[in-house]
Amino acid sequence: MISGKLPKVFYGGDYNPEQWDDTTHQEDLRMFQLAGIDIATVNVFSWAKIQSDEITYHFEWLDQFIDSLHESGVFVCLATSTAAHPAWMATRYPDILRVDADGRKRKFGGRHNSCPNSPTYRKYAESMADRLAERYKNHPAILVWHVSNEYGGDCYCDNCAAAFRVWLKQKYGTLEEVNRVWNTSFWGHTFYDWNEIVPPNNLSEHWGENHSTFQGISLDYARFNSDSMLECYLLEYNAIKKHIPEAVITTNLMGFFKQLDYFKWAKHMDIVSWDSYPRANTPPSYTAMAHDLMRGLKDGQPFMLMEQTPSQQNWQAYNSLKRPGVMRLWSYQAVAHGADTVMFFQLRRSIGACEKFHGAVIEHVGHENTRVFREVAQLGSELGTLGNTLLDATVSAKVAILFDWDNWWALEKSSGPSVALNYVDQVHKYYAALFRRNVQVDLISVESDFQKYDLIIAPVLYMVKPGTAEKLEQFTEHGGTFVTTFFSGIVNENDLVTTGGYPGKLRKLLGVWIEEIDALLPESRNRIVLKEQVGALQGEYECGLLCDLLHSEGAEVLAEYGDDFYQGMPVLTRNRFGQGEAWYVASDPEEAFLDGLLGYICEEKGIPSLLRAPAGVEASVRSKDGKSYLCILNHNAQKQNYHLDEQKGHELLSGEFLEGDVTIEGYGFHVLELS
Amino acid sequence: MISGKLPKVFYGGDYNPEQWDDTTHQEDLRMFQLAGIDIATVNVFSWAKIQSDEITYHFEWLDQFIDSLHESGVFVCLATSTAAHPAWMATRYPDILRVDADGRKRKFGGRHNSCPNSPTYRKYAESMADRLAERYKNHPAILVWHVSNEYGGDCYCDNCAAAFRVWLKQKYGTLEEVNRVWNTSFWGHTFYDWNEIVPPNNLSEHWGENHSTFQGISLDYARFNSDSMLECYLLEYNAIKKHIPEAVITTNLMGFFKQLDYFKWAKHMDIVSWDSYPRANTPPSYTAMAHDLMRGLKDGQPFMLMEQTPSQQNWQAYNSLKRPGVMRLWSYQAVAHGADTVMFFQLRRSIGACEKFHGAVIEHVGHENTRVFREVAQLGSELGTLGNTLLDATVSAKVAILFDWDNWWALEKSSGPSVALNYVDQVHKYYAALFRRNVQVDLISVESDFQKYDLIIAPVLYMVKPGTAEKLEQFTEHGGTFVTTFFSGIVNENDLVTTGGYPGKLRKLLGVWIEEIDALLPESRNRIVLKEQVGALQGEYECGLLCDLLHSEGAEVLAEYGDDFYQGMPVLTRNRFGQGEAWYVASDPEEAFLDGLLGYICEEKGIPSLLRAPAGVEASVRSKDGKSYLCILNHNAQKQNYHLDEQKGHELLSGEFLEGDVTIEGYGFHVLELS
Amino acid sequence: MISGKLPKVFYGGDYNPEQWDDTTHQEDLRMFQLAGIDIATVNVFSWAKIQSDEITYHFEWLDQFIDSLHESGVFVCLATSTAAHPAWMATRYPDILRVDADGRKRKFGGRHNSCPNSPTYRKYAESMADRLAERYKNHPAILVWHVSNEYGGDCYCDNCAAAFRVWLKQKYGTLEEVNRVWNTSFWGHTFYDWNEIVPPNNLSEHWGENHSTFQGISLDYARFNSDSMLECYLLEYNAIKKHIPEAVITTNLMGFFKQLDYFKWAKHMDIVSWDSYPRANTPPSYTAMAHDLMRGLKDGQPFMLMEQTPSQQNWQAYNSLKRPGVMRLWSYQAVAHGADTVMFFQLRRSIGACEKFHGAVIEHVGHENTRVFREVAQLGSELGTLGNTLLDATVSAKVAILFDWDNWWALEKSSGPSVALNYVDQVHKYYAALFRRNVQVDLISVESDFQKYDLIIAPVLYMVKPGTAEKLEQFTEHGGTFVTTFFSGIVNENDLVTTGGYPGKLRKLLGVWIEEIDALLPESRNRIVLKEQVGALQGEYECGLLCDLLHSEGAEVLAEYGDDFYQGMPVLTRNRFGQGEAWYVASDPEEAFLDGLLGYICEEKGIPSLLRAPAGVEASVRSKDGKSYLCILNHNAQKQNYHLDEQKGHELLSGEFLEGDVTIEGYGFHVLELS
């Protein structure tokens, strides 16, 4: 959608003109040019500056700054400023302040601090978006609209309680149905009146982050909270569209962010954008997976890298510098996975408050003679060289991993079987094994089209929502390969167990019956013993966490437990189903097992690795207009060699023609236009 | 008391008919029969179902289900449903909601959630018991009444504050006396008016679980809280007795549960019942000790095992399956220690909310073809075979361990000398040494009859209440052996120090004066050096935690410290007192020392081991009508051999006659009728 | 100031007559005499006893007890009793109760529990001081006035909020200036009305102890809280002075106590007094440093050791006994560093509430035949022998370490770069290196006179307040040596970054520019590689925590980083500046490096070690009337030898003349009158 407008991948980031004087603005515009910066996100936290009381607005400073940017050739990502309400609003309209999970009414402070069901918040936030859109609808500098900022958090106030009851009425119609889906006959929680329902928090059904006595209400409250914020977003979205039907509107997401169901949100975003903040020791595969999730939110549409730090963060425990080359490498990693912008938080560092030690393009020293600035400028120059080559190019995968927020919420609120079960970690284990093979992967929702994939993996698909089992059966029947794991098929969309034998609705597809589920102590392990060689899989492997005790009901048993009283029971099965097959991994295996298993399946199914390369050398392909661009990223500090089999082509940054054995620098990046 | 009614040990557990439809009920009754189940606890959490508003009650479904049970030959343990109030009650009468230790008014949610001093709770709970008793007083299926469920928790609301002041007036008469016993001259806490007294919590005298600035008020509040709940229990108890004077009434206790003084409660229970939930790694000796405490609550009267899980729990961090045979083994362990029922939570698994992953006789799969069901049915069949053999049989011990809730509360609220001091752990150390010798032990209160024992052990008897020292002196004078430890004899019943030299009122009996008490860092140790051999005790042993620096005032010094500036001071003393002797263990020794010490004492005093057996093979004897039944339990996974010295007899389950060397299977159980 | 009154160092401690009857009082007076005790601190927590309602006061018991003391030759340190308000006051005037950091209104309990801005507290506390001063102004026993006790804690109530706004108005004049210094343009926190400002706590800008989203308001609230308590102190101080202009008034401080800016407080104290409670494993250098800080508060004036425990504490996790000799050793350590009293908490142990397990001169046993009492009496006798020898003697140092509370607050509220950064630990590292050399050190404030020192060390001088850089430049210019470290010169007095290049205002003096700051993971290290030998420094050393990446701008580079991408960058620099030099240590080095560095500087600058002695043998000198007293303390349990070079003289306790090689007992103390 953006390709028509700009000749290249956008480059820039957040800038807060309200923190600086005009002299500084001018100096900064000069440096933007030095760095090749052509987009600035402004007005993210200016609500208090723009609106000084209920009826008084001050836009002149913003007019002026946007004009300055425009004159300097910098485009604008215009935020709506509603992510932190003004102090006066909190004082005069306390309904805007949240009540936290401990039932405490907050006072003014922080950000992301407005109750999503506050009438005051909704009124003034919508009004702000309306005024901004009206004022800037014709401004040629504005490329993208950025609603609020990093939506998140939760609220348990009385307005939320009332809104929750309405949400429930809309969803379930009757209180009888609410009682049924929450199984309130347990512990005598039957409701006879809607007003008896109170938000689940640490004063009612919860204790701590992941503990609930009633998962049903907790799950619905998580959905309600996500929906409430989505309503806030939509109020602003629609206010902008009213004035500018063709506006490109987004809000910046945060990868694997638990509180908001981004698949639901993305339907209402014109383009996905997100803020990527890996730690120094975050595995590259994890960041890659997050990019793939963001790309998956809108079925493969390229996204904006809205924020990353040029060097360090401030909010981690130990805020390491990004090593020389790493910012560039991670920027290209985003691009390789579908980003069409490279943007920073922040273009200039604040001098006070909690982000003053967050890295910036322009550091406190204020000039361009810094390592960080030089690296930024070098990347700006390279992106200029690449121009529009990769813009709008897509990523094509034959392998998909199912990811589902409802499953995440339900799984981790579960009381038992093990506190050590972490959904994203399980997903990452499977992702990482494919990453190590350089197999391209999509992260998809249960609503996505399954038929375009050869292999679908659904780690810990605890919750099977209506239609999902049927879709998976159809996918497999038609020749697809399906892989799932322990603790899958347990509950329906309301976290009610599917009785009659686990894995419930997946039982037919998988051809197994899970009789029991054993939770292992952290120090305990069992063994996966292969019955015979399966590809490179042979001998035995460690497993742990949970062990399903299962019986084959037709599935082929490929490996058995090596220990404990369930020694000899199946731990790896494959069920032929129609023209396809459905695999079940009954425990949490070590890495080498997953490498072997997914390696075997990929080879059997002809799912290609993009590159033969040593550990830490990643490959991804984007394609466009019949051309393919192979991106190669060396996450090692040392140079590495990789081998191009049949692929070859010009490396676009150096202009060299690469084929056969190639050397890549430490933290290096190659992008080949394949010929 | 129950022996007259049923021909065998009851077998069954909790069942929640309100969660299931009639078809399921019928199917479950069929499976109960398969499993030999003849008792079901019902109506535990049905308050909201029975009472839909202040004046409307619905008993028909319960009538019907109790009739069904009766028709199927299943007896009923009828709960009163008052352990979780209905949501409507919380909405309309907020006084029923607790205020927690942080001063936060709770909202509706969870269970065990009613303020024990709430007029609303007391009114409707009593009324419910009254109505149930009136309705079911003549029902032939009802065997036992089960008031509420697992009483516990605490409340700090204004109603509790007012009730606390009344409780204090009743106990102390005047405010002057309150000031005296709480030592309020410290830190100027003198009260001039009853209304100045507020409940001690994290807003006043406490911070965290075990920290108080005023132990006196904390101790009294713990007593008051226990008494308040006991009053709630008694309201229901008396309401039932009004209609059914002969009713057998209980409430399910929880072993070493700190908040309630079960010795005080048990006086008002017709039979003790309790819920036993060992973790996978709980030592068998700990579970045995808990059974012995429950048996001790009513001076040796057999008790009900009201709840245990057939396999896993849901609320532990890592919910392991009970290994094959373990459920049977632990059931027999309960019986061996005095249980006259074997009952489960739960007979059928819920499909929603927090206990859906708690094990059940009938699992989610819903049929009888599971390992768990088979083990339950096997045990049911065996209990049928045993019939009434063990029913009402008693356990006879020559060794008692003193246990005291006031001591527990006071000790662990103490500021200093060491946060590592844990009362139950200390008690367990002595218990475990006796357990390893298969010496039968009673856990008794300070009010129990001491004279029937040869040996009384009182680990960390920090608080010596009025009369206790005198009773112990009398016991010893008449030939008894008394053993106590470091940090004993420090305070009176109000946690006021007995001045004039530790161990205060025990000083004469023990013949020692404790001058100082050293607290060791966790990594520090001292040594116990024997002066000469004492039985098997010789050489030296490690000790730690606390080291009393003591002087003998007549006691014989058997061992001295090996290190530090108090090297050479006594650490183990024995004082001849009348015809008996009083031992003092001045530090926290390693296991081998306690094995040696208690081994020596038992041998000297002729206190028998029930069995010569390898580690993990436990023995207990129950006796009845002149016959003794030797129960042998192998807690090891592997088979073991044990040796019967003079004992021999028929093993009742196999019918074999056993004598001499015997092999017992892993997790095996033998019960010999001694001849 | 006290020297005129008493012939010797005072010896005594806290005594609470209100906890004991007359018989006990008489017995205690007898024992005081045995122990050489000549001062008692009374009335610390008697508010409730003295004042039983708004208008009724009871002083008779206090009159009588003070007379008793006086008759026994014991002087009085008279406390004002306002550190814990009476219960009746809390009930009738809830404004006296604090609101905690979580926004919770406290209830009656504990101590140090009054809101410092409570009108009720201020009224009655001032009135109490007034009445006490009026009553006892002519009593010959009263030597020192002790206002309240251990001021501390914080409050966030509405009275504090209102007072905070007034404080801000006084400090900043306009709201515009507040907005500027707090940088409220960040996150749109602009205030348009004073009433919009709320105290920063866990409901607004904070989460947890050391996390704030707005450092500016947090820093000012810390100052405001310290000032509010200081105002309370001053109300009492002035009330006393009104009646007794010559009164010697103090309040007991607590060493490195973060909440109160003691440099500011000490200006209003006639003499500094403090409570010293080292743990068993506190390094002797840490205690020494705390003494030096207390001495530094009033520019070297001797101070009172107001409290220490004769043996154990009660509030530590593991309350070890002080080993024989340690109480004496630590008492003399205080004296060696400038104490003119040795006083205990407590003279007699309470029998109830949380301090009953805190050590006392008179233990629960109640007589004098204890180790603890004997050690107390021995020390009392020795102090008698020493008489007035050391009284009012001063300590003279050529080395000063800068310590600053504002810096402490700002540094540890910082979000980034590393949570592992601890100000006092960093100060202690430099102190300890000098301690190991037996170099005398002063701890001074930024307002102190710098010119009397040869060497000033300012570890992590993150905040450079107005005038400080200039003072340091002047100091160095005139030949002084200045040492500072990483993360210095970053912000101004409002925690606003000094832009233009770190270390900001120190850049010129240090001759370096810090381009970046790397935070290391806890397990990571870098290396300091010396370019050539610097004194004993050679080869390489470990460093960690933070690594500044710096460029010399004229400073000589003495060592470089050994690893990582900044290998070869300077890590130790020296800048010639006028006649002096300014050193920069760019990372957190291991101990041996600091020994080498400070050893080199001391040798170069002719800063003497007081003694050549093995590890753990400490030396300090106090001087008076032209005479010097060398105090030597052996912190080892074993005896040690030390060597007197040119020093020699009579050891005052033994009378021996010492020179050359000397042996000192384990935990021994020597005091030589140097000849």
Automatic annotation (TrEMBL), chains A, B, C:
Binding positions for substrate per the UniProt entry: 111, 149, 315
Gene Ontology molecular-function annotations: beta-galactosidase activity; metal ion binding
InterPro entries, alphabetized: Beta_galactosidase_C (IPR013739), Beta_galactosidase_Trimer (IPR013738), Class_I_gatase-like (IPR029062), GH (IPR017853), Glyco_hydro_42 (IPR003476), Glyco_hydro_42_N (IPR013529), Glyco_hydro_b (IPR013780)
Catalytic reaction list: Hydrolysis of terminal non-reducing beta-D-galactose residues in beta-D-galactosides
Domain annotation Beta-galactosidase trimerisation: ranges: 397-607
Residues annotated for Zn(2+) binding in this entry: 115, 155, 157, 160
Stretches assigned to the Beta-galactosidase C-terminal domain: 616-673
Signal peptide (residue range): none
Superkingdom of the source species: Bacteria
Pfam family, one: Glyco_hydro_42
Domain Glycoside hydrolase family 42 N-terminal: 14-384
Keywords: Glycosidase, Hydrolase, Metal-binding, Zinc
Active-site feature positions: 150, 307
Annotated GO CC locations: beta-galactosidase complex
Similarity-based family: Belongs to the glycosyl hydrolase 42 family.
Name of this protein: Beta-galactosidase
Species this chain originates from: Paenibacillus terrae
